[in-house]
Amino acid sequence: VQLVESGGGSVQPGDSLTLSCTASGISFRHYAMSWYRQAPGQEREMVARVTTTGDEEIELDSVKGRFTISRDNTENTAYLQMNNLEPEDTAVYYCNALWSVWNYWGQGTQVTVSP
User: How far, in Å, CA of 55 to CA of 15, rounded?
Assistant: First the structure.
């Protein structure tokens, strides 16, 4: 099983990034897909989740209206569209796939937002 994240980078405040998480080795359509993030010295926190039916749930109030989560089951890929990025969004972003007792993580991708 592999979850491979991509799309991170260093950007300026107000910029946009789209993170991708491509899964292999799992029956992707059965898994709820989530994005978490972990800033230095902080605990990992859930950012957003997309259900197997494509329903979007944004968990962090600080990103509501700026971030969107989606999935493409034909591509086995989940996305996190991040707009109007702020320095406080700086973190390592992790992809998670969850179905019943099966729980998998990606390796993380760094997002740095600074002037």
Answer: 26
Lookup result for tokens 């990606």: 106
Give just the sign of the alpha carbon dihedral 95, 64, 83, 67.
positive
Handedness of CA 2, 21, 59, 55 (dihedral sign): negative
The closest alpha carbon to 81, from 72, 69, 71, 92, belongs to 69
Helix (H) or strand (E) holding 40: none
* CA angle centred on 95, ends 89 and 100, rounded to 5°: 135
| Rounded Cα distance, 17 and 1, in Å | 26
User: Quick one: what percent of the chain has pLDDT higher than 90?
Assistant: 100
pLDDT (mean) for 88-97: 98
Specify the DSSP class assigned to residue 111: E
What is the rounded distance in angstroms from the CA atom of residue 84 to the CA atom of residue 15? Answer: 5
The number of beta carbons lying within 10 Å of the beta carbon of residue 14 is 11
